[in-house]
Amino acid sequence: MILPCVDGCTEFPDAKQALQDPDGLLCFGGDLSVERLKNAYAHGIFPWYSVGEPILWWSPSERMVLPPAELRINRSFKKTLNRLQPVYHLNRHFDRVIECCARIPRKDQGTWIHPEMIKAYQDMFAAGHAFCLEVEVDGQLAGGIYGVKTPRVWCGESMFSLQSDGSKLAMHGLCQHLLAAGIELLDCQLHNPHLESMGARLISRTEFMTFLK
């Protein structure tokens, strides 16, 4: 199958046309403009590619998601929260958060947050369509997360940890904010055992799209 190219417009093919192998690869090309990224996330599509590749757009058949109310907090983590007394900051230093995520790659995906991606999400943040959260312990940065906002679903792009449980603390702070804001779902995109241990689960693309709509 020849993948469609999306150069010259901001519209995407129907996500149902995504390949089964590799799972979710939908199309290529285009750019990372704010308008195109807004349209992508509104239709359950996200960019993921390496330097030297064309921009690749994905919508996997199964989506890793976490309803904020279902964040799993075991007894050990409750003790950690009580002991550390973390302080959360929403949308304070987006540049610092995304640069920390870029410097600390995911074990299963390598370094994919390259300069072009950083600039694109900085533009999204400036336009009010992206978010970041930092967590501090004893006045020191411990972890953080950034992503994209849609009306009912927030999409977590990447998170980082500078100390033990730093990313868990960031996820806890974000879920507390989402609950207060009435956001129904945190999109975690791809399966991740760490996120699964915190309560995230896989749902079908079709079910995910019902949340977006």
From TrEMBL:
Give the enzyme's EC designation. Answer: 2.3.2.6
Keyword Acyltransferase listed = yes
Keyword Transferase part of the UniProt annotation:
yes
Catalytic activity, per the record?
N-terminal L-arginyl-[protein] + L-leucyl-tRNA(Leu) = N-terminal L-leucyl-L-arginyl-[protein] + tRNA(Leu) + H(+); L-phenylalanyl-tRNA(Phe) + an N-terminal L-alpha-aminoacyl-[protein] = an N-terminal L-phenylalanyl-L-alpha-aminoacyl-[protein] + tRNA(Phe); N-terminal L-lysyl-[protein] + L-leucyl-tRNA(Leu) = N-terminal L-leucyl-L-lysyl-[protein] + tRNA(Leu) + H(+)
InterPro entries, per this entry?
A: Acyl_CoA_acyltransferase, Leu/Phe-tRNA_Trfase, Leu/Phe-tRNA_Trfase_C, Leu/Phe-tRNA_Trfase_N
Q: What is the enzyme's main class?
A: transferase
Enumerate the subcellular locations listed in this protein's record, separating them with semicolons. Cytoplasm
For this UniProt record, the keywords arranged alphabetically read as follows: Acyltransferase, Cytoplasm, Transferase
A Pfam family of this chain: Leu_Phe_trans
The GO terms this record gives for MF are:
leucyl-tRNA--protein transferase activity
Q: Which Gene3D superfamilies match?
A: Leucyl/phenylalanyl-tRNA-protein transferase, C-terminal domain, Leucyl/phenylalanyl-tRNA-protein transferase, N-terminal domain
Name the protein family: Belongs to the L/F-transferase family.
Q: What does this protein do?
A: Functions in the N-end rule pathway of protein degradation where it conjugates Leu, Phe and, less efficiently, Met from aminoacyl-tRNAs to the N-termini of proteins containing an N-terminal arginine or lysine.
Record protein name field: Leucyl/phenylalanyl-tRNA--protein transferase
Source species: Marinicella sediminis
